[in-house]
Amino acid sequence: MASSGLKHKLEADVEIEASPEKFHDLFCNRPHKLHHTCTDKVQGCELLEGEFGTVGSKICWSYFHDGKYRKAKQVIEAIDPEKNSITFKMLEGDLMEEYKTFVITIQASPKKQGEGSVVHWHLDYEMLHEQIDHPETLLQFFREISAAMDSHLIRGF
User: Fold this and answer.
1) Which of 71, 66, 73 minimizes the C-alpha distance to 88?
2) Does the N terminus or the C terminus of the chain have fewer Cβ atoms within 10 A?
3) Distance of CA 110 to the CA centre of its chain
4) What is the phi-psi region of residue 84: left when phi exceeds 0, alpha when psi lies from -120 to 50, beta otherwise?
């Protein structure tokens, strides 16, 4: 975990069997279908403005984390189809009660050996004050979502 004052970064890699393109496509172009892969964690993704898979579009996630139903309104800040990468910037929601800024970048890359992918989760955030916990349980939540997505993607979802 890198840090500077109240600004911090958390990162994690998750190995999956699905291709980087399939993983990226689901998160980028079909996030409203994600809840089918992990109904216990994600209840939905609503398009608020723009189009799925387009920079500047606004979406709202409904999810269950740390024993509570939560919401996260985000804007798609960047998409790089060649690198299978997407970046979401938090606008409103439960996380903004503890963090001044929160940016999530997800990149799926081919494994160096064999088939499948490595999904890299990168969280950049600034806490409102020093007593706020680092979002390590959220990073674990994203690891679990990646695994659930993988099991559906390799079955042709």
Assistant:
1) 73
2) N
3) 18
4) left
Judged on CB neighbours under 10 Å (0-12, 13-18, 19+), 121 is: buried
What is the bridge-based pairing of β-strands 2-4 and 42-49? unpaired
Q: How far apart are CA 40 and CA 64, in angstroms?
A: 7
Greatest Cα-to-Cα distance within the chain, rounded to the nearest angstrom: 45
**88-109: average pLDDT:** 97
3-state SS record for the chain: CEEECCEEEEEEEEEECCCHHHHHHHHHHCHHHHHHCCCCCEEEEEEEECCCCCCCCEEEEEEEECCEEEEEEEEEEEEECCCCEEEEEEEEEHHHHCEEEEEEEEEEEECCCCCCEEEEEEEEEEECCCCCCCCHHHHHHHHHHHHHHHHHHCCCC
Flag whether pLDDT at 1 surpasses 70: no
106 and 120 Cβ atoms separated by less than 8 Å: yes
